[in-house]
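pasting for the record
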Amino acid sequence: MDLSVALLHDKMVDKQGKLVTTSITLIDIHDIARSSRTFGATNLFISHPSPHLRSLAKTLKSHWDEGFGATYNPNRKEALEAVEVVEDLDEAMSRIDERTGRLPKLVATSAKPGGARISFKEMRALLEKDDTPYLLLLGTGWGMSDELLERADLFLEPINGPTPYNHLSVRSACAIMLDRLCGV
């Protein structure tokens, strides 16, 4: 199984449906790294076009990799080992290509209904079938733009609860998705 996760911040939409770039949230990096490590994701790519925010993400990673945090909380260090900070989706794809010799298949996610979707069960079967690299795309803000969604090879079904309310944090949604795709 070769599944990586990409937390994207560029080409997102806001409440009004306008194209925006969202800010990096440090708790997202911590929590998604922990979920990724727990469920065996190969990499977690934190993608942002701003050099300043990429630097902030790298500073956080460095604190837990080699700074005081490395000895203070070794579990956090372990979780953040697979984090890579990249400028955009294409750089994340290139890094997977460098590691595997193949570009990953992109798996889009969205809480919004619509589109031809693949179930978690079907996606899990694909992951278990061979060593094809897959990259799970997570949006921020109010979700990914159509431009990003159209690049995906697969579109994962939304997470639905028993109520019509469906606005999970990206951290919570990622943990649920990884459990459904990779959990025991």
